[in-house]
Amino acid sequence: MFNAEGVFANRFRMATIKRLEGMPAPRFGKHCYFSEGAVIVGDVEMGDDCTVWFNAVIRGDVHFVKIGNRTNVQDNSCIHTLNGKAPCILGDDVTIGHSVTLHGCEVKDGALVGMGATVLDHAVVGKGAIVAAGALVLSNTQIGDGELWGGVPAKFIKKVDPEQAQALNKTYAAHYIEYSDWFRKADSDPKNTQIVTTSEEYASQVKSQGCD
Known about the structure:
Elements: E1 16-18, E2 27-28, E3 33-34, E4 39-46, E5 51-52, E6 57-67, E7 72-73, E8 78-80, E9 88-90, E10 95-96, E11 101-103, E12 106-107, E13 112-113, E14 118-119, E15 124-125, E16 130-131, E17 136-137, E18 142-143, E19 147-150, E20 155-159, H1 162-187, H2 199-208
């Protein structure tokens, strides 16, 4: 697992991408980034400049998942589908916050789903819309363009300017492309990542590699 310098081999610390028999393999556009622990399975199609962060899971095993350009799926989020009935479709410049669950739904261009929110089967989140953190969007809910919804179950809160909302959410999406470049740079040198169970082990590895 470790090379001669005690550095954890790259293949043990990056994302898992799995093909399933009888369905298309995952397909990716240019300049996509996958963090350690990310899992992408089955019929998943992703555009350019997408990022999938630590321990996020995208499962295209019982229906397809399609993701547009510049969309980010943040840490611990889960994207899944309804068996043979509802795919999961994300547009361009979509931000999926930390620990979000999307199941068999559609999130349109420039929308944002806040941390810890859940969006269920056949729901649609409109262009530039915002789902507040912790919200539960029930099956078949239709969130209009530029609308803010929140609560459990989620309800309409107010209308926001769709162009302003999309511009703001595009900024978030652009930030995550920038963040991915920081991580690409760090990943280019295996010494930047230590796999340890104690602080003492970390200090020992750093010292043995002559790192600061």
